[in-house]
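Note to self: user wants both folds in one dump. Writing first protein now.
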Amino acid sequence: MKRVLWRLLGAIPTLFGVILATFLLTRVLPGDPAVFFAGNPSMDAHAIEQVRQSLGLDKSLLQQFVIYLHALAHGDLGQSISTGLPVRQELLNRLPASAELTLCAFLLAIVTAVPLGVIAALRPGSLIDQLCRLISTLGVSLPTFVTGLMLIYVFYYLLGAAPEPIGRLDPFMTTPPKVTGFLLIDTLLNGDYDAFVASAKQLILPALTMALFALAPLARMTRASMLNVLSSDFIRTARANGLSWRTTVITYAFRNAMLPVVTTLGMTFSYMLGANVLVEQVFAWPGIGAFALNSLISLDYAPLQGFMLIMAAIFLMVNLVTDLVYAIIDPRAEFEK
């Protein structure tokens, strides 16, 4: 418990640094938001200045930053000029879509990469080992938007096996009442199995795109870690003492090999939070990533700052959970700090 409290306290300077960095970065973006939101490039300087005053851009950077901190202290992330709605409401409405996509892709990557890496390590040089290396290389080499476009071209355009990439649900189907925000869960809770199947089909390609991105480092790390542990002295000693192959691999080798894999899991999940921006754009997925990218294009500061702040908070939480899981697997880690 003490360790958790220290980590939470240590996250405060990091969050402040993120707040400061995002504030400054949004202010150095090229273009003038006042001109953009004036709506008419031919407007005179006085009209544009009025828009700038209404946006608070006429004040100094220090004054703008103090106003921003004061608003954050009261839970106010500002208002999106593009939509006219509070940023907090926009992000809360879109966060379940991003979370559903990221979590499904992450689970798909885990259940595929970990067994693949373990089997590849147990049979080095075999066909499955070569497959593991190939997938790892492709996953690292191909950007997520390229993978997504390739999957759309093959499975939607050529084969017609996937639905049109137009979001979470076919527009001709009725969206179920919002309970959790996760369509797969809400459709089941409402007994709408047709909508469940439709939403699952829409989720397959974007989840597969992100899963391939996450699968590469997970499979490679699992394979390398298992190979390293299997060649250790304690494994040879366990086999020499008559322990079965199953007990040696599962109880001793796999548990010790999971230590670096857990760290890679946390890092990979954090990377996926950034990768979902392009994936959501490619598949017209209505998540916070696509919302942030559209806000960046339209020079809408508040949603972009809110998005980066939420991503930083999630990133810190993932790191904390990773440390706790690491300590559960290896209790010695509790005493290293």
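First done. Writing the second protein, which came from a different request thread.
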Amino acid sequence: MNRFSMIGRRLTQAIPSIIGIIIVTFLLTRALPGDPAVYFAGPAADEQSIAEVRAALGLDKSLPEQFWLYLGDLARGDLGVSISTGRPVLEELATRLPASLELTLVALVFAIGTALPLGILAATRPNSWIDHLCRVVVTAGVSLPVFFTGLFFVYIFYYIADLAPSPLGRIDIYFIAPDHVTGFFLIDSLIAGDLETFRAALAQIILPAVSMGVFVLAPLARMTRASMLQALGSDYIRTAQASGLSRSKVLFAYAFRNALLPILTTLGMVFSFMLGANVLVEKVFAWPGIGSYAVNALIVSDFAAVQGFVLSMAILFVVINLAIDVLYTIVDPRIGMEG
């Protein structure tokens, strides 16, 4: 089975999961406390006005009727209109998703760039100070909530040391956002050749990215260390060493490549965790992503916004798992793609 057939099969297998997510999300949003019609009508509205708003939103219909109408809207690519902003949910998600993805990807780059060297060094030097440091980092990473880490960094680097800009969004108020090309401020500012805006966007994203990166650094470092220890103790490594190969070739061409599969599995899981953790980080740093948008929608029982957020997250999970499956076949072509 080639990669294209595998991709088609994985997408087909994901369809029942997405259908289940649509059904469960629809039912759970209807179980949320509060009445969106009351919020939309305003605090001074009477019962008749609230009833008219409820009818306009389609909330006066039975659940099966509401669900059928919702499916019809999904088939047309219409995720509804957010009652809290008055804008189409699809437009809101398209505007805010690049902010969340940029934050998540920068945090992931930081986590990978720190966890992999730390895990490899700890595995090659067991019981050394670097190994003990790895254990301390792993313990701290899994013990500290991501919102606490974010608040701690804000207190130290912004309030005490004054080394970081104010945690109020993607770019400082003294700068103008770059022209929209990709939606990623770092990339768009480089495309525009505006290095000052690039530095401002980079300074703004460092603290939230590190706060989130520390959250996922721990499982990556732990898995890297464990996988490398197992690989370094294998017979083929001793054979490679006995053959006179250089230490770097043995370490990276043989040990690290064979240890990469469980690391990739962990990477896929932590990326999924990050898409959930960015909700807390975005609230701490006033980051205008889809996480903070979803929290605001939950507060006012904004059904369309919540359903659109969950559906977009489900699609992202499918894409991430598909990318991990493809990476498996690149790292080790012997892996059967039928399973």
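Dump finished. Worth passing along: The chain is about 75% helix and 0% strand.
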